[in-house]
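Summary for the funding panel

The consortium committed to producing paired sequence-structure records for every protein in the target list. Below we show the first two records in order, beginning with the earlier of the two.
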Amino acid sequence: MPIFRTISLYLFTIIFLGMSVIGCSTKLPEDVKPTSPKPFTYEKYEVSTGTDKNQTVFTGFLSDSTLAELAVVNIEKNSTRRLRIYAYKNGTWELTLNTSLRPQIRFVDITTIKGRDRLITYEHGRLNWFDLDSRSEQKLLNITTNYNMIDLDKVSHIDITRDLNGDGLDDLVLPDFDGFWISTQLNNGSFTDPVKLGPPEPFLDKTALDQNRSYREVGINELTALWYLSRLHQMDCNGDKRTDLVFWNEDHFDAYLQNTHGAFSADVKTFTTDVTFDSDGAYAIAFDFSGENMFALMVGFREKTKRRILHTFQDMNTDGITDMIIHTLEGRSIGNQRSTYDVHFGIQAAEGIVFAEDVGMTIKPRGTAGGLLPWGYASYWLQDFDNDGDLDFLFRDVNTKITGMARAMVGKSIAVNLELFRMENRSFPEKPTTKRKIRPALDLFETERVFFPPVLSGDVNGDRLLDLIVGKNWSEMHIFLGEQTPKVFAKKPQKVIVTMPNDERNIWLVDLNRDNKKDILIKNRSVTQQNQVTMLISK
């Protein structure tokens, strides 16, 4: 049935392409009177980046400039990997570099090496870094992972950079079928030889949902890389104040302890927990649904299921010890699941960290969750929004029922609900502290695009309070400025006229001038004209 297939593809898309959000904080007196927050003032810049179809855009301080450069990578018709760098000079953005990369580059990233941002490129068998002075790529590491390009006309941006050992330097982590390649950066800017740590991927030879290919055949790609990386956890396992690497391995944890030199031991230490859960990472649910009838799975004509998932590790009660967060998903439809987040407090014992079997605190959003978080359009942020030292929980959900699908298919817009929970006396309230309903206008005359309101969080005005940035419609953005009040955000938004992207992954926050304020960067692709990058740089 064509109409059912259309609905199926729509729901499958919104389940797989969302991002994520969560939170918690301390109660403020109800009689606190909000002061007018400092408005978001900005300089607006627009850069035309050519007409190439699949452009990967990112920023970095690639030179000694006070303003970050804009880098664009794409594949031309002759398969040439093209790199363009734009820099702000003489009051305008200029093309300062136009060159080709090595012919087999599959993905790119930005890594800070010895104080300067470097473009990192991966091809089968090696990682390179781009030397801006010689305008050429230099070998960084010999390393091989099973990465597949989804689109042979696109070089994707894969985030393989993170500080693994807590020394303030960027390290590298590449997922593979049988573990994770780990390479840490030394003080002189060099990297250690890669070592493979962690257990193999447990679902390699299984199929997800109604796919015909196994997870191994799909391989690591732009989408599944997020699934692989979600299996890597960081915590202090033995109380020595150093961050260790931890993986769930069937029925126990594998821990690789950090030594005094910032490296990780290849000798695995194991420990167990009395906290029960069904799987590590929400992506595992995709394999639980394998073989089920897709219509019944989407509309809920099936028995209700309940799954407890190891979500993440985070110090929720600020006692310096990592706590375990379990995410429970319950429901009949893959796109309409109820969420509960249970926190099991960590206890430092002589043999290492132990997690309490009893639940220490619970967060229960009223909205529904997609069954494949964080790729479903129910997502969360766990951040300290009001700068009071405690975490806050912000939950976003989208109606994926028939009514929500009809709104998207007919009205070409998606409604979003936001719920903020603040911690009070080391617990979360049953009801959200703050709610926002984002209802874009219906557009019955739109024939192609569906407007999905992007949601971002960051300090854009420099007052050390996180602000809420929301796309209102195709030409307007709303900023709810942060306030140190029980409601956390201003009631009325500041309106900014700017073209919104057709994919929320094409708008992000980044500090472009190192002033500790987030700037807003938007990438818009045009079918008939030049692609455009818009920057709103905070003043």
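The next record, for a separate protein in the list, is shown here:
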Amino acid sequence: MKVLLRSDVDGLGRTGDIVEVARGYARNYLVPHGLAIEAIAGITAQADAMQRKREMQSVAERADAEIVAGRIADLVLHITAKASDEGRLFGSVGAAEVAGALAIQAGLEIDRSHVLGETVKDVGLHQFTIQVHPEVAVSVGVEVEPAD
């Protein structure tokens, strides 16, 4: 059975896509939950309108992401952590700490799943990649300093 998706469905498609699904899946889940409608004649115009709207939103989101990336491109975050005299940390600095430092020092709320990079166990300057948008990523310096 062909259905027009009214919203994004994981593993199936995005808003405005016309997809083939099992009749029971459409009748018992997609249609009752408002996720899809049956693709009958004349529905393609509605599908085209949904796809145009999605493309315009995508362009706007990418433009916003590039503005954010420009704000944090040359940023060096400073994080203090307990460390030994040799410069080894007693813990580690990872995505959660970088996201927290980004929120405090740059005023930018980024989910920690968008911070890419290995956890750091040494004092010094390290690089992390921030995925602001699926198509926009920016590298940020993180200076890990020993706590007094």
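Regarding this second record: The chain has three helices and nine strands. The domain at 73-146 is CATH 3.10.430.100 (Ribosomal Protein L9; domain 2).
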